[in-house]
Design a protein that fits this description.
Length: 779
């Protein structure tokens, strides 16, 4: 769902338009102040029942319409007719509107409606609002659920202070194809980890009571339901073809976890599911989401998804598309306008019943009630309060800590890192002084001018470490004119250096030759990942690759610092570069966080949540595949393998290095046999045998050796992030409950089957200790 910039000059014009129309429609007092609002009865059901019964069909349908408040690809929507509809109570929600002044004016207009129903104000707060945290894929690499919940809580606090009620987050789509740019927004390839993160994010946005009952919380929206991360070819908006077994085993669990955590809303996906577009899929939305999972919240479409049912080929016009969406129980039409145009007619022609309209309207009104909007439409929002909350020092400090935890050390030959003192350091690359790309894509209301670059992070440390820092850009982000045009056409903001590419590279090489060590800051721009940013080639852009090869050829040690939103193909880099640091898009405090890792002030502790392929031909690649009837055998030609590349990824799921070393003992089980009513306790001792303190992510995997259906070679079923001082040992325990051993049988029903299970515990999905136990079913 595209976001137009609200911090642009066009936004300021938009605000003036709102002020103007507020005065025109409401009179001066309504435009400049907050009109009084009567407190509703404390009996929610009675209040909503009375309100609903007093509304006309058109007013009810209006509550199901959502529109953007700014200029975007559909053209201007802030026009007299649009604002007139708000005043008449025929718009239920507005998105892309924030700041206390702007949202107050919108609510002032809405409260002039006959029933004084406030607007629900929404925005894509994906990884922070004003304070920008690492992109979700980076945060997931921390494996720190408490920290991820806290960043969502801070984002909610800032967003609510800026007048917002609802975020279109978390995105919980499982994806095993890094060509899909939106992997940046998710938690990676694993359903167990993805489910845990989904719940943490919902609790962070909505508060401990699973409802946004205070002015610091906002409603969460789980997206994209469903299977959006499995689009064919990794191409955004493409079709999905998947068995129901894969749906329920792998792709559905994070959505279900978020719903069980109390998520207030769910967004439909653009893709089809089993041949029927998600937005019109009655089996998916009614049978699975509402009935099987008992979801009672708002179901909203993605941007104009109802109207796009025509392009899908399942509806011949907007009227039929509207019927299909409402039949599937979609409550709110984002930006398309089809509900407003066609629902009244469909009710009159008895395609849609009045009860269906009432049910959808009631879900929207219920969310507004739970937010307290009928009691206080403004939720105590003011400029003075916003200035106290937005980007406060504590939030920035949390952003730095989260960024440090998100960094993954991929390679560190001969302990090049952390950097020693007394060095001449050549800082080379288009991301050394780059601020815009530090906050990444989907950076909401974040101001990239306030983001700190790698240079700004390193420069304050130079004196204390006796570093001499020098800089050359070395290369543009890309020299491909077609790619550059496409990126900048969609807000890429990529600047091309006036120097010729060859001269940029020559200057960088001259600097490198005079240095002791080279920091090469390379990767993707923020526009090269995210929505509508699929890539078929996952290597560094060719001009950056040429620069890196030239730097390596100088013979000086090179630290490759990556800025990117997805796994990249780094086979050459892994073979030839001394150290590789995956920093993703780290947010507002990116520079200081990276500098902390490079200097050794912080010890890298991130672990990958997506496998890094050796080349694109390996995709999809993930750790939990099945062994097949002819599993890999290097000595047998007729086994499952490639002729030109190994089966395994370059960097596996769960992988991440440290500046210290952790040693794992053998696994100790309290039993070798359990029944369906017993838990198994698995213990392992982890020792820090290095000279530095560090955090380790201890991962536990299980394998059902023989079952009635084929099973993955292993599945993540537990993890713990622990801290160890030098020489310290810690016993880590995992409780294996029978539920973790369940399998979906041939009828897709959860069941326990007796037999052997293997347990693996270690630092990633490859380096593991192993044991086994048996499940015996008793009567």
């Amino acid at each position: 769902m595209p976001i137009a910039s609200i911090l642009s000059p066009s936004f300021r014009v938009t605000r003036l338009l709102i002020l103007f129309w507020g005065v025109l429609l409401n009179g001066i007092p309504g435009a400049l102040g907050k009109p009084a609002q009567k407190s509703p009865t404390s009996d929610k059901d009675l209040f909503l029942k009375n309100l609903l019964s007093s509304m006309s069909l058109e007013e009810k349908v209006g509550q199901l319409a959502q529109f953007t408040s700014d200029m975007d690809q559909t053209g201007p929507v802030l026009n007299p007719n649009y604002l007139k509809m708000v005043r008449e109570g025929k718009v239920g929600s507005v998105f892309n509107a924030f700041t206390p002044e702007f949202t107050t004016q919108l609510q002032n207009i809405a409260l002039q409606s006959p029933h004084k129903i406030p607007l629900l104000l929404a925005y894509d707060v994906i990884h922070g609002h004003r304070t920008i945290f690492p992109i979700p894929l980076a945060e997931a690499a921390s494996w720190d659920l408490e920290a991820m919940q806290e960043t969502a809580q801070i984002a909610a606090h800032e967003a609510s202070a800026d007048g917002l009620h609802w975020t279109f987050s978390p995105m919980v789509d499982i994806s095993r194809d890094p060509r899909w740019g939106r992997v940046a927004e998710g938690a990676g390839e694993d359903p167990f980890l993805g489910s845990a993160i989904a719940q943490a994010k919902v609790h962070g946005y909505q508060g401990n009571y699973n409802k946004a009952v205070d002015s610091h919380s906002i409603l969460a929206c789980v997206k994209h339901f469903a299977l959006y991360g499995a689009v064919q070819g990794g191409r955004d908006y493409n079709s999905v073809d998947m068995s129901r077994r894969s749906m329920f085993e792998t792709y559905f669990p994070p959505y279900l976890a978020a719903v069980q955590a109390g998520a207030a809303s769910v967004m439909t996906a653009f893709n089809d599911v089993d041949g029927i577009p998600a937005t019109a899929n009655t089996w998916l939305l009614q049978n699975v989401l509402r009935k099987l999972w008992d979801f009672k919240g708002i179901l909203v479409t993605d941007y104009s998804a109802i109207h796009e049912l025509i392009n899908h080929g399942v509806a011949e016009d907007g009227k039929k598309a509207t019927y299909l969406a409402m039949r599937a129980s979609v409550d709110m039409d984002m930006q398309g306008g089809d509900y407003l145009q066609y629902l009244p007619t469909l009710v009159k022609e008895k395609w849609i019943s009045p009860q269906q309209i009432d049910a959808a309207t009631l879900r929207v009104l219920s969310a507004k009630y739970d937010l307290g909007l009928f009691q206080d439409p403004y939720r105590q929002v003011s400029r003075q309060y916003a200035d106290q909350i937005l980007m406060r020092p504590e939030h920035l400090q949390k952003a730095k800590i989260m960024a440090e935890k998100s960094i993954v050390l991929l390679k560190n030959k001969e302990n090049l890192l952390p950097l020693k003192d007394h060095l001449k350091i050549a800082m080379i690359g288009p991301f050394v002084k780059n601020q815009r790309d530090m906050i990444g894509n989907w950076s909401a209301a974040g101001d990239w001018h306030r983001a700190l670059s790698l240079w700004q992070g390193m420069e304050p440390l130079a004196a204390s470490h006796d570093w001499h820092l020098d800089y050359e850009k070395g290369a543009n982000i890309t020299d491909d004119p077609e790619l550059l045009q496409r990126l900048n056409a969609h807000g890429g903001q990529i600047e091309i250096d006036p120097l010729a590419p060859a001269l940029l590279r020559e200057n960088a090489i001259r600097l490198a030759e005079k240095s002791d060590v080279i920091i090469a800051a390379l990767g993707e721009s923020q526009g090269m990942s995210g929505e509508a940013a699929s890539r078929s080639d996952l290597g560094l852009p060719s001009n950056q690759s040429e620069l890196l090869r030239a730097l390596v050829a100088t013979g000086k040690p090179v630290v490759l610092v990556l800025t990117n939103g997805r796994p990249l193909t780094l086979s050459w880099e892994n073979e030839n570069v001394a150290a590789i640091v995956e920093t993703w898009f780290l947010g507002t405090q990116a520079g200081p966080a990276i500098a902390s890792i490079l200097s050794g002030a912080a010890n890298p502790s991130g672990h990958l949540t997506m496998s890094f392929p050796r080349n694109v031909g390996q995709i999809p690649i993930y750790y939990s595949g099945k062994s097949t009837g002819r599993p890999f055998d290097p000595n047998n030609k007729y086994s499952s393998k490639y002729l030109d590349v190994p089966n395994n990824p370059l960097y596996p799921f769960g992988y991440g290095l440290s500046y210290t070393n952790f040693v794992y003992s053998e696994i100790s089980l309290n039993k070798k046999t359990i029944n369906q009513k017993e838990n198994l306790l698995a213990n392992i001792t982890v020792t820090n045998v290095g000279s530095r303190a560090g955090d380790e992510v201890v991962q536990m995997y299980l394998r059902d050796v023989f079952a009635s259906v084929t099973r993955p070679v292993m599945e993540l079923k537990g993890f713990q992030r622990i801290h160890l001082e030098p020489g310290q040992s810690k016993k880590v325990s995992f409780t294996i409950k029978p539920q973790l051993l369940e399998v979906l049988d041939a009828d897709l029903k959860k069941t326990l089957e007796p037999g052997e299970f293997r347990i693996f515990i270690g630092t990633d999905s490859v380096h593991l200790k192993e044991s086994s136990f048996e499940l015996q079913l008793t009567k």
